[in-house]
């Protein structure tokens, strides 16, 4: 009986361990269109393999224009991934630096005060950090 109980606990533990939800935060500060295309492809790959993964992409620096209406090269991808629960965050400091009104970000994009603090906060919450 003790062996069956031990086996049950081991199976239960493995099931819980395998059910862990992944949480990824990407740091995007490149204006390079190739880098920006890669990030959308990588998000798609992750969600295809693990649809429950939590993803946030923090855009700052020169990359900020990718989240702005009229200058984004991938607005349809942003909308597609927003519908799948991906969070796109625009750094307010970068918006100010490039004289972009926060009301001009794509619908559904969140504006965070400081990109670096957003990245640190996510890491403190256990999110895995990926530098693009």
What does this protein look like?
The chain is of the alpha/beta class. It has a single domain (21-131), classed as Hypothetical Protein Ychn, Chain: A (3-Layer(aba) Sandwich), CATH 3.40.1260.10. Helices cover 45% and strands 18% of the residues. It contains 5 helices and 5 strands. The protein has a 5-stranded parallel sheet, sandwiched between helices. Strand 2, helix 3 and strand 3 (87-91) form a beta-alpha-beta unit. The longest helix is centred in the N-terminal third of the chain and has 17 residues, at 2-18. The chain is globular, with a radius of gyration of 18 Å. The model is unreliable at 5-12 (pLDDT under 50).
CATH-defined superfamily? DsrEFH-like
Order of helices and strands: HEHEHEHEHE
Helix vs. strand class: alpha/beta
Q: What overall geometry do the principal axes of the alpha carbons give?
A: globular
Roughly what is the average pLDDT, rounded to an integer?
90
User: Which CATH architecture?
Assistant: 3-Layer(aba) Sandwich
Proportion in β-strands? 15-25%
CATH topology group: Hypothetical Protein Ychn, Chain: A
Count structural domains. 1
The quaternary organization reads as single chain
Q: Separation of termini?
A: 52 Å
Q: What's the level 1 CATH class?
A: Alpha Beta
Which stretches are low in confidence, meaning pLDDT under 50 for 5 or more residues running?
Answer: 5-12
Strand arrangement in the largest pleated sheet: 4-3-2-1-5
Tally of DSSP helical segments: 5
Q: What's the main sheet like?
A: 5 strands, parallel
Helix content: 40-55%
Whole-angstrom Rg: 18 Å
Total strand count, please? Answer: 5
